[in-house]
Amino acid sequence: MVLCPVCGTEYIDTFPEFCSVCSWDLTSDTTFFATAEIYQRKEEAKLNWARQMWQIVQDQKNKNSENNTISLPFGQVDQVNHNQNFNGDLKRQLDKLQAQLNQAAMERFQLQ
Question: Most buried among 9, 59, 98, 109, using CB within 10 Å?
Fold first, then answer.
């Protein structure tokens, strides 16, 4: 059984490449835990973003089901996207500091 990690759709007899409900790539999770830690974090962030977007759209869909219109709550979408960008900026800063720390440790070792 395959379960879509975004919308929760179950596939019992088949293993499709993409979810038929939300179009999420179902093949990426098969190698998720066998890859590098950084890639895992990126995939996890991408999956969390997709889950949040899916939930926002579903909530909005339920609110507007009476008149059959869907209007995305752009304020919420912008906030989620801003948070993702902020997290990416923090990760880049952390990587840069880690590289500087590694360089300083190498230079210190060479001076001894």
Answer: 9
Give the residue ranges of DSSP H helices in the chain: 37-63, 74-111
Q: pTM value?
A: 0.41
Mean pLDDT, range 78-97, rounded to an integer: 79
Q: CA 21, CA 10: separation in Å to the nearest integer? A: 10
Whole-Å CA distances, 45 to 53, 80, 81: 12, 11, 11
Query: Where do the domains of the chain lie?
Result: 1-75, 77-111
Token couple for 62: 């339920």
Greatest Cα pair distance in the chain: 74
- Torsion sign, CA atoms 89, 91, 4, 55: negative
3-state secondary structure of 2: strand
